[in-house]
Amino acid sequence: MKWIELNDMAQLDAIDAISADRPVLIFKHSTRCSISSAALGRLERAWSVDDDARHMVYFLDLLRYRSISDTIEQRYGVQHESPQSLVIRNGKCVDVSAHFGITYADATGAMERAANARPA
């Protein structure tokens, strides 16, 4: 899985800009949480090279960059959870999953639905 490390607040502006063309997934991970590690592992094991070509995915280490997570919460109106995946489209969070609700099928399905949705 070709993660883009989310480690700078300015990247959120880039994510919003990119999301005008295609959905972007943000995965918020805590290295101290076994549920987070399990969700991450399941997602990575199911991910394929084709998925890398179709989807842009960002990885946020919550312990190192908690301030970015706080900004995500405010910016997209999503309550913080860990682990958590968000699908961003047109600068808005259009899908959010947490804990064991984070699955490959849910993440890729949400991104496909967002890609095919008509603009509001």
Describe the structure.
This protein is of the alpha/beta class and 120 residues long. It has a single domain, classed as Glutaredoxin (3-Layer(aba) Sandwich), CATH 3.40.30. It has a five-stranded mixed sheet, with helices on both faces. The protein starts with a strand and ends with a helix.
Keywords for this entry:
120 residues; alpha/beta; Glutaredoxin; five-stranded mixed β-sheet; 23% strand
Radius of gyration equals 13 Å
Structural domains: how many: 1
Strand content: 15-25%
Mean pLDDT: 95
Helix content: 40-55%
CATH secondary-structure class: Alpha Beta
Total of DSSP H or I helical runs spanning 4+ residues: 5
Q: What is the number of strand segments?
A: 5
Instruction: Report the principal-axis shape.
Output: globular
Which sheet architecture does the biggest sheet show?
Answer: 5 strands, mixed
- CATH architecture descriptor name: 3-Layer(aba) Sandwich
Unreliable stretches (pLDDT < 50, length at least 5) are none
CATH H-level superfamily: Glutaredoxin
Structural class: alpha/beta
The N- and C-terminal alpha carbons lie at a distance of 31 Å
Walk across the major sheet and give the strand order: 1-3-2-4-5
The CATH topology assignment is Glutaredoxin
Order of helices and strands: EHEHHEHEEH
